[in-house]
UniProtKB/TrEMBL annotation:
The chain crosses the membrane at residues 12-36, 56-77, 84-108, 215-241. It is found in: Membrane. This is Tetraspanin. PROSITE patterns: TM4_1. Keywords: Glycoprotein, Membrane, Transmembrane, Transmembrane helix. Its main location: membrane. It is a multi-pass membrane protein. The gene is Tspan18_1. One of its GO terms (cellular component) is plasma membrane. InterPro entries: Tetraspanin/Peripherin, Tetraspanin_animals, Tetraspanin_CS, Tetraspanin_EC2_sf. The keyword Ligase does not apply. Belongs to the tetraspanin (TM4SF) family. It comes from Certhia brachydactyla (short-toed tree-creeper).
Amino acid sequence: MEGDCLSCMKYLMFLFNFFIFLGGACLLGLGIWVIVDPTGFREIVAANPLLFTGAYIMLAMGAMLFLLGFLGCCGAIRENKCLLLFFFMFILLIFLAELSAAILAFIFRENLTREFFTKELKKHYQRNNDTDIFSSTWNSVMITFACCGVNGPEDFEAIPPYSSFEKAIPEACCQRELQSREGMFVNREACLLGSERFQNRQGCYTVILNSFETYVYLAGALAIGVLAIELFAMIFAMCLFRGIQ
């Protein structure tokens, strides 16, 4: 009976580690996509130190889970006590780090409010100055998502244009045939003169929130699932460690 229990524990340990291996592979792939994505998301991440750090933390966590899942599978099948103990300690460290990150994200969630982004835009935005990373990033966001400002074109009323020809709206808010920097304007002159027909009128906060709402819930569910799997994997690792003679 004890041998059958140990054998069952070993295969359950292997199964949980296999899921950790898959979760690590997903995080690793997502982290790589965020960093190398050519559609403009990379520039958003690069301009925000918190997001930039988070992307690399996600990449590192994915690589570590990928490796530990593989080692955990090997330790379970080979019944290696040293490998199982090594696996348990590292999974515990990762588990605590992920809990700390979740707590920090909850504490600093106010930095992602509409009011915060509106204040930062009005304070730092320099229109078509592509040498300024903040302005260049905002222009890329507005072009990519076909939006304007945080709430709408009214956000730029306090930011003076570069010439008397232009109205308050920046060039990045003008409609394009293709949503990229290389895309041709539908009618640039009419847009800058104030014709709403050729302007993107919806604010970026709402557009981006709607675009990523599904993925945010999916990422949250995935994170909870990974934490639960890690917890069970630690329990099985210790039970298997104690059962190996």
